[in-house]
Amino acid sequence: MSGHFTHDFPESGSVDYSDQSTNLDATAEAELRELASRYPQPRSALLPMLHLVQSYDGRISPRGIELCAEILDITTAQVSGVATFYTMYKRKPAGHNHLGVCTTALCAVMGGDILLERAKQRLGIDEGQTTPCGKVSLERLECNAACDYAPVAMVNWEFFDDMTPEKMDELIEKLMNGEPVVSPRGATITSWREAERVLAGFPDGRADEGPSAGHASRLGREIAEERGWTAPDPANLPTPEPKEETK
């Protein structure tokens, strides 16, 4: 019996080495080295270092891979292996804004697949692509851990809750026209590269902009406070009886 293995991830591992362009300069190298110095084991800094590479180059660039390997004293193959494992690291340049639509489980039931198709039609691109103007890239996202607001989308990792096709149309129009966009949770959207810099570990001073959690996420706690419910005190919990050993 003969045949060959096929899979659904054709882009896996495909860093574009034909594009050698980079914005990584002496300042970027100093910041990468600073990140490495924050960890007892420098190699632990690889994930934030890759986010920083993306903040400069808009993708995981060949120079970014080489520089991370040099600083951490590991091979470029090891860096590339990590960079191509996680979907947050882009093999090709992402747009000025990165739009993600969740289509997992509850979001799918609530219309996530419809929203993704709507985004494809409005942007004229498929998932994993960027508009020719470079303004927006599109991604199908796995669970955003925001099921209480399904279906959800994200722009530069900021939540857009309780989405509808009409809300998606309005959001895309603003992104394509360069208009200010504010997440329903309060955060004003910056660029994807700026968001990547924050993920790398260089705060922009805006962490407290907007609520830390929305009403649906706080509802259980609010009900408990209204009714005077509290969790049991661990010190007063009964000691469980020891189980008898069985032969």
From TrEMBL:
Keywords: 2Fe-2S, Iron, Iron-sulfur, Metal-binding, Oxidoreductase. It comes from the Bacteria. Coiled coil: none annotated. The keyword Magnesium does not apply. [2Fe-2S] cluster binds at C102, C107, C143, C147. Residues 1-21, 202-247 are annotated as: Disordered. Its EC number is 1.6.5.11. Its cofactor is [2Fe-2S] cluster. InterPro entries: NuoE-like, NuoE_dom, NuoE_N, Thioredoxin-like_sf. SUPFAM superfamilies: Thioredoxin-like (SSF52833). Pfam families: 2Fe-2S_thioredx (PF01257). One of its GO terms (molecular function) is NADH dehydrogenase activity. Binds 1 [2Fe-2S] cluster. Residues 1-10, 219-228 have a biased composition (Basic and acidic residues). Belongs to the complex I 24 kDa subunit family. This is NADH-quinone oxidoreductase subunit NuoE. It comes from Arachnia propionica. The gene is nuoE.
